[in-house]
Every structure is written in structure tokens, then in C-alpha cells.
Amino acid sequence: MKTTNVIVACLVVALLVPPVQAGPLDDASAAYHRGDFAAAVKLIRPLAEQGDARAQANLGVLYENGQGVPRDDIEAAKWYRKAANQGDASAQYKLGGLYWQGKGVPRNGEEALKWYRQAADQGYADAQNTVGVMYWTGRGTPQSDAMAMEWFRKAAAQGHAKARKNLEEMKEKGGLSAAKAPVKASLNSAAKAPAMPPTGDYRVQLSSVRSEADADKEAARLSRLHKEVLGDLTIAQVRADLGERGTYYRLRAGPLKDHDAAVALCQELAARNQGCIVVGPAKAP
After folding, report:
1. pTM for the structure as a whole
2. Is residue 165 domain-resident?
3. How many alpha carbons fall within 13 Å on the CB side of residue 282?
């Protein structure tokens, strides 16, 4: 999957969001859909200036697309921000897109994620999928497969086709098998996992770091932190070269006798606010 294209595709706004409120917004929507953008602007602008969040979000769309007004990303960002600050999820999502692309605002992945997250937390499926992609690719945030899977699942549960495809690809390439209950991950946990586990047994991946030195420190920290849960299990380090994404060192506790034992351990760790994913045994070549 070309993850950059997935993110960009999530940012495209094709149609004015249909209004919930009756009256001028209905008329503006009708004008928009028949291609009379100037009339749509004329109807929407007074409402936007009066503080109507939906009108502000729609006016931002018109400025971003150059429909009925000269295309102006700075104006689009201004109106999106006004609506986003009032909690409009579509505006939060679109403002995140401007930050991601550097349109009308300085390009800033962390700021993009902030606005995407606000929309995603309101159940906006496109935003949930985009947040998943950002965690999967480690753009704008530390890379985390576990967090990516959590957001892909939320979007997929709403029927989001791209999120479902992303989940399938993660499972195919990484051999990931998640516990039945959702497992929350720390921002530093779980880089994507096609690399083979150290043995043929099940293991639980706790974290992923970028250097061998950090892996040593993190393994020692996790061993101390979860001594009561891990017991005699060892934390092995697995080096994984992910091409353009760089090299990661994955920290995996085990060995565990079977999938059920690994899931049980992962759930116990999740109860202690430790992110984790279950990693199956290595397949024979």
C-alpha cells in the first residue's frame, strides 16, 4: 500500500456537507449541488459571519476548492478553524488536512494529528482511518501498530472501506493477532511486524524502538515494570528493517505455549496500561 497516497486521499473534499439546519443552509446546499457556487457563497457567508459552525465549515470548503470565490487556502484555514473550535468534526478533519499538506498554514504533522484526533474522537470515520495511517507510518507521531489497529477497527466498524483494507493488510504482512478485547497501546509500542519471532512459540510484543542501545534500556525498564506479570519470561529483541521507514528493534516477551496464553498475557498487560500485540510463531520457509 502506498501510505502517502492513502493519507492524501483522505484529505480530498468533493462535496459540500449537507446541512442539518433547515432554511438558508438548505438553499445553499441546493445551489451548490446544481453548480451555482456564487449563490451558495452568498447564502452561507452571512451565517458563517454570525458564528454558525456548519456554515463556517462549508465556506471553508468553497475557499479550498475555489468554488464561487477565488481559491484561497488561508481563508479556508480561517473558516475551518472557526468551525473546528466550535467542535465541528468535519472542519477539524479538513483543518488537519491543511496542516498535513501545508496549505494555508505551515506544514506540521503534529498539528495535523491533533485536529484529526479531535474529529476521530467524535466518531468521524475518515479521521479515524487517517489517524490509523499516521500511527502505522509513524508520521506526525511515534509509530505504533497497536494504535493504528485500534483506529482502523473503529473506522472499519462504521463500514469504512479503506480502514478495512488497511486492517487486512496489517494482518497479512504482520501476522498480527489481537486480543478479543481492544488493547490500548502506548505511543512507543509495537512497530509493524513481518520479522520472525526469536523462537517458534507465541510472544507478546511490548514496544519498538529505533536503536539497539534504546532497546537494551527499554527491555530492562519493561522487565522491572512488569516483573509480577512477566515472571520468568524473557524479553527478546528482534531487529526489523522496514526499508524507507528505517530499522526498529521490537521487544517481545515469551515464549508462550499457545495463542490463548499470549492473548491472556496481553490482556493482563493492557490492564496495566501497557500496549501490546500478539505475535504468532515463525512459519517455516
Report:
1. 0.57
2. no
3. 10
